[in-house]
Amino acid sequence: MANNTFYTTTPIYYPSGKFHIGTAYTTIFTDVLARYNRLKGKDVRFLTGLDEHGNKIQTVAEERGLTPQKHVDEMADEAKELWKLLKISNDDFIRTTEERHKKVVKRIFEKFIEQGDIYLGNYEGLYCKPCESFYTETQLVDGKCPDCGREVDKIKEESYFFKMSNYVDRLVNLYEKNPKFISPEFRKKEIINNFIKPGLEDLCVSRTTFDWGISVDSNPKHVIYVWIDALTNYITALGYDPDGNHSELFNKFWPANVQVVGKDIIRFHTIYWPIMLMALGLEVPEMIYAHGFFMMKDGKMSKSKGNVIYPEMIVNKYGNDALRYYLLRELPYGQDGVFTPDGFVARYNADLANDLGNLLNRTVAMIDKYFDGEVPEYKGNVTAFDSILKEFADNAVRNVENLMDEYKVPDAMSEIWNLVSRSNKYIDETMPWVLAKDEAKKEELGSVMYHLAESLRVIATMVAPILLDMSEEMYKQLGVKEEARNWNAIKDFGTYKFDKVQKGIIVFNRLDVNEEIEYIRNEMSKTVKKPVQEVKEEDYITFDDFSKVDMKVGKVLECEKHPDADKLLVSKVEVGEEVRQIVSGISKFYSPEDMIGKKVVVVTNLKPAKLRGVMSEGMILAAGDGKKSLSVVEIEDKINTGEEVC
Ligand code: ME8
């Protein structure tokens, strides 16, 4: 049953900084493909992960004063947490520092040497560090990196090379035989004109100037080029074995159905990746789909411009569904799109709150009111408009399926919203509130309610890969049983027997346009990388000023919640001979039990004050903004309580 499996992947991202909506976009897009195929009953494997080696990561770690391993460990936790927040349904998360990956990459490299695909030579060329890429003089744009526009370095070193020329003919043949291998089609022309026609040069595949990477077994001063290391993740994660004893997973899922990447890394995935697979004697993926980029009104997202959008901000304020909907709908298939706060709020209000949200609320409220919540049975086409809606819905399911099978998610979404609009129009046409006034029209009214419920059921399943909370809520309110929540169940409009509907929560509340645009802009401006602040002469304090603050080491003996304020904890702190009662706003981050026994820094000459009715005689020092993070300043146990802090 080879065609009942579906394997899809995202790029493995560089853990070099906080992940923004660009990275989130690719992962959400791929998540939608995985969820859709699961809905269709396929056996799905969805892989994402991190690309943790290379000079760039080593430099970032050094800047943070951490070892590369510690740095990537922290970033991996951050990535996993983000994907959890966004409810990404990946089946595996690969890190290139894992043993399961490293040992296979080493074997693959040796195999390439043994086969004569890789040879030892000398590299003299131009290297862009942020992109981890080599370029020839002719590929540079105005003497700078063609991908990121930054300065490139001249490098000379002994290196291994991959003999790309051995495979060019087979590669061109692949492009011709599998027209969908590079999608969208116009990207294929770019690749052929920019890289294949000028003559594909042998690729430098090792470095000796840094060591954060996988070393070559037979010549350990060489580190394997990060792209050779990274690209293989798609097979090492499945359990590929260079010696032929592949895992069951590998046999089942390789070749991948679609590998999703951004347009910036299409060259690596459509030239080097298939060539590596050919050299290993493996099949190539069915499709490399390269999506466009999210831009901002003033160009690329960048911290210095202060126009970066982080997914957490949108999710925490507007919900995960709103983020997914906007990102997926806003980037046309294969093209770039622009993120604007205005566009986000407009789409939220129009598509989610008004069109879909209202359709659900109105329908459930009417069934509740006119039929005590019992959805009437299907009686065929009763009103003049019934067959039109049924046909529209049946067509929508077919069109959406065809588009989703081609991974054209934004086009599929616009088809789904056509059905949403058509259903709203059906309410205006049939005017149930008029039918309800006439006992003789009871059957017509019943048919209208059934058609609306059925249309919403179809919509709930079609949006299920996209709007995770909303589809769940729709199923719940309409009373759609677990076993009917799949793609097959929506192919015959009119076949479903509903139970009772159930009024529920409103998932998308209309937003105040100006207020929310302002909020998002404000959050974006907080991302600006601020220059180190200079202190003005008049802002300095003297040593005498500083010495006025009396700080001592204290030990928390007892701690409990403040009786009247959720945010406050009340601690009894031993400071030398005395015990003081101190109230602190730390309960979001510490439970009373966490605090007991801690050695902390206490400001002892702060004027005592009552905080929400409880006396506080000092202050416990802590770091952080108090909203997202906070850490109490702790002192090593060897220092006695009552000692000065200076
Ligand atoms: O290239 N809009 O990792 P990376 C949309 N480690 N997508 C965007 C985007 C934007 N503005 N910015 C980034 C690497 N992306 C390599 C990959 S794979 C074997 C190795 C997404 O962290 C898009 O998918 O630089 C792009 O291809 C990817 O992030 C680059 O991630």
List the helices and strands and how they pair.
Elements: E1 5-13, H1 21-39, E2 43-50, H2 55-63, H3 68-85, E3 92-95, H4 99-115, E4 118-128, E5 133-135, E6 153-162, H5 168-177, E7 182-183, H6 185-196, E8 203-204, E9 206-207, E10 223-224, H7 226-231, H8 233-236, H9 248-253, E11 258-262, H10 266-279, E12 287-291, E13 294-296, H11 311-318, H12 320-330, E14 337-339, H13 341-371, H14 386-405, H15 409-430, H16 432-435, H17 442-463, H18 468-478, H19 513-525, H20 543-547, E15 551-561, E16 569-575, E17 578-584, H21 592-595, E18 599-603, E19 609-611, E20 614-616, E21 619-620, E22 622-623, E23 631-632
Parallel strand pairs: 1-2, 1-11, 2-3, 7-12, 11-12, 13-14
Antiparallel strand pairs: 4-5, 4-6, 6-8, 9-10, 15-16, 15-18, 16-17, 18-21, 19-20, 22-23
Helix pairs in contact: 2-3, 11-12, 13-15, 13-17, 13-19, 14-15, 14-17, 15-17, 17-18
The structure holds ligand ME8.
